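Technical annex, item 7. During the second reporting period the consortium partners agreed on a shared format for inverse folding records so that results from different sites could be compared directly. Each record opens with the tokenized structure and is followed by the designed sequence. A conforming record, contributed by the partner at site C, is shown below for reference.
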């Protein structure tokens, strides 16, 4: 079910906004959602077009920005103003990238080695986060256009090896694009989720995610247990991918035609044209034995056998990386339960076969390798939205958690929609002299009275040493761990005695029950507030009766008969008001009793003080 939110302006209920999953890729980016009807993840695309948006940004001389396929055509004609592979610059200083600076055909500012890189396009400077934000903005707009609804929240994926600076830059990019980035998720984790891995708590698996994209290769070894993904190791080559496959075909053709490779540098249009032909050949050879075409008047052809011979060294490189990743994880090939294929280049049959041979098992390749990461991000988004409650990765509390306090009131310790893991603590005290036990009742729900909420657990903190009322300090703490298990602890701080209990917070509530509990809290808000006020007034009245009673018992001799009579009458009136459902009446009676007792209470206190101070010098 969807979370319920209250529209402050209209006071009406509305389904929580959609949360999209975004694969912000080096070559291509895309958005996915969980289809509200089929509950299946789907990549968003306009009618008759691809879900993939090339991660390319073009700036024209007037500062207009174009992103995607339209920008891609400027790669050849205006390389200085057309930015690709901005992801490679995220969270990097010039020092980090200077060895590969020639890779970028646009201007990467190198005036400082330490600070983060900037890119110049025209007379403007952009940080990598700003550049990525243009891509995210485009994705957001596309999604809004397709879904006909505002899109403000997203889960964005990053490579598993991204460090904090790179992750932060990705978050910043999201913010700049007007997106609330609820979670940064590792790409291999997202890909695993798209294959349904990690969606069941009992599942324990070791997964190899092999990701060969357009320009990068990553291999990640993950372990999932208790619904938590752990990255055991990552390896790869940040400059190895489909582009290299295309280049190897281009080189082969140039050799065949006796054309010097320098021609590619001199004639950009020619270079671009022949690269596109090579890419077409590569794709065609996935399901055919020979590719033939004419380009610039020349006949070009390549057989599958030759193609495979050309790319074998590239594939071998990925296998060396995979082997190193296993070594770093301290595992052998046989320990891998599942191999997941990610990235467009894994469509090449030789790649799939080689990897399958290496790991000794069939690879998982049924999900579109270009979309699999975004689809997994959408699944993660859905989990965050609380729509997929079978899943453990749930990381917010769907309902408030609290304890019962005096008069049956709900004292919320961890509010609904709080992040998990989480902890909170609060101090309470005893109500009665010599009180030796304190009952801690744990409830879940949004109502003010615990009786309207769900009781999750109850325990007794016993053996509190005898102390006057209000002296004991009982600290109650709530701790929800990453598994959604709530541990409630109560500790009397003066004596150190403590007691705790473990509660499973999301105990078998159905979606309908959860929804009803939230709706109830809203429809009953007014009466709940009134009830709370009444209970608080009653508690105050009861406490005043108790302390007054004690006071007059102790000081009978110091009270005049009249004072005694008046007090008794006021106490009786207050007692009576407590049985009625009128908080204002209770407050009035409390006030009256206070007015009667105040003068003699002050008199008696003053006397006691001056008695205590007699004979003492200050
Ligand atoms: P990605 O970065 O995951 O979007 O992968 C893009 C790369 O996949 C590009 O190099 C594409 O040429 C390549 N690619 C897409 N489709 C195929 C295919 N059918 N066979 C081989 N490579 C492909």
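Designed sequence (site C submission):
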């Amino acid at each position: 079910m969807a979370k319920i939110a209250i529209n402050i302006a209209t006071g009406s209920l509305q389904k929580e906004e959609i949360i999209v999953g975004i694969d912000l890729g080096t070559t291509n980016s895309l958005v996915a959602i969980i289809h509200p009807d089929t509950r299946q993840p789907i990549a968003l695309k306009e009618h008759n077009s691809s879900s993939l948006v090339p991660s390319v940004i073009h700036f024209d001389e007037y500062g207009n920005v174009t992103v995607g396929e339209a920008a891609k055509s400027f790669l050849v004609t205006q390389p200085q103003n057309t930015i690709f592979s901005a992801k490679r610059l995220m969270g990097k200083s010039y020092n980090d990238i200077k060895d590969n600076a020639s890779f970028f055909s646009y201007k990467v500012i190198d005036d400082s080695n330490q600070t983060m890189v900037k890119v110049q396009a025209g007379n403007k400077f952009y940080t990598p986060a700003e550049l990525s934000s243009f891509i995210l903005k485009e994705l957001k707009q596309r999604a809004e256009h397709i879904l006909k609804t505002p899109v403000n929240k997203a889960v964005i994926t990053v490579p598993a090896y991204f460090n904090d600076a790179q992750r932060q830059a990705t978050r910043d990019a999201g913010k700049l694009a007007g997106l609330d980035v609820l979670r940064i998720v590792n790409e291999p984790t997202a890909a695993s989720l798209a294959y349904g891995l990690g969606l069941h708590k009992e599942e324990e698996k070791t997964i190899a995610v092999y990701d060969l994209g357009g320009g990068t290769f990553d291999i990640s070894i993950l372990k999932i247990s208790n619904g938590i993904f752990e990255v055991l190791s990552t390896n790869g080559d940040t400059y190895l991918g489909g582009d290299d496959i295309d280049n190897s075909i281009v080189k082969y053709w140039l050799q065949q035609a006796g054309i010097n490779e320098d021609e590619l540098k001199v004639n950009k249009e020619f270079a671009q044209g022949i690269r596109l032909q090579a890419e077409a050949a590569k794709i065609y050879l996935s399901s055919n034995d020979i590719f033939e075409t004419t380009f610039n008047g020349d006949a070009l052809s390549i057989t599958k056998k030759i193609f495979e011979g050309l790319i074998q060294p590239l594939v071998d490189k990925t296998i060396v990386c995979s082997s190193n990743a296993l070594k770093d994880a301290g595992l052998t090939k046989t320990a891998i339960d599942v191999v997941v294929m990610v990235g467009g280049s894994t469509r090449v049959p030789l790649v799939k076969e080689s990897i399958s041979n290496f790991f000794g098992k069939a690879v998982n390749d049924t999900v579109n390798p270009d979309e699999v990461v975004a689809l997994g991000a959408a699944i993660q988004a859905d989990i965050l939205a609380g729509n997929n409650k079978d899943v453990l990765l749930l990381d917010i509390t769907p309902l408030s958690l609290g304890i019962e306090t005096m008069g049956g009131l709900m004292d919320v310790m961890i509010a609904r929609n709080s992040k998990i893991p989480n902890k909170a603590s609060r101090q309470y005290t005893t109500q009665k002299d010599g009180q030796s036990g304190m009952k801690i009742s744990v409830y879940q729900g949004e109502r003010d009275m615990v009786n309207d909420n769900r009781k999750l657990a109850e325990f007794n903190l016993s053996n509190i040493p005898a102390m006057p009322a209000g002296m004991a300090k009982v600290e109650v703490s709530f701790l929800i761990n990453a598994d959604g298990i709530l541990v409630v602890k109560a500790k009397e701080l003066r004596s150190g005695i403590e007691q705790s209990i473990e509660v499973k917070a999301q105990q078998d509530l159905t979606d309908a029950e959860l929804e009803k509990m939230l709706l109830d809290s809203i429809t009953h808000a007014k009466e709940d507030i009134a009830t709370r006020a009444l209970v608080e007034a009653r508690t105050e009245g009861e406490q005043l009766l108790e302390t007054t009673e004690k006071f007059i018992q102790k000081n009978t001799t110091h009270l005049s008969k009249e004072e005694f009579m008046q007090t008794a009458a006021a106490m009786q009136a207050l007692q009576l008001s407590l049985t009625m459902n009128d908080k204002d009446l209770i407050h009035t009676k409390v006030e009256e009793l206070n007015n009667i007792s105040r003068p003699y209470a002050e008199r008696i206190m003053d006397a006691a003080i001056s008695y205590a101070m007699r004979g003492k010098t200050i």
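Residues 201-366 form a domain with the Nucleotidyltransferase; domain 5 fold (CATH 3.30.420.40). The pocket of adenosine monophosphate is lined by residues 25, 27-28, 213-214, 241-243, 279, 282-283, 286, 343-345, 347-348, 370 (CB under 6 Å). All partners now use this format for quarterly exchanges.
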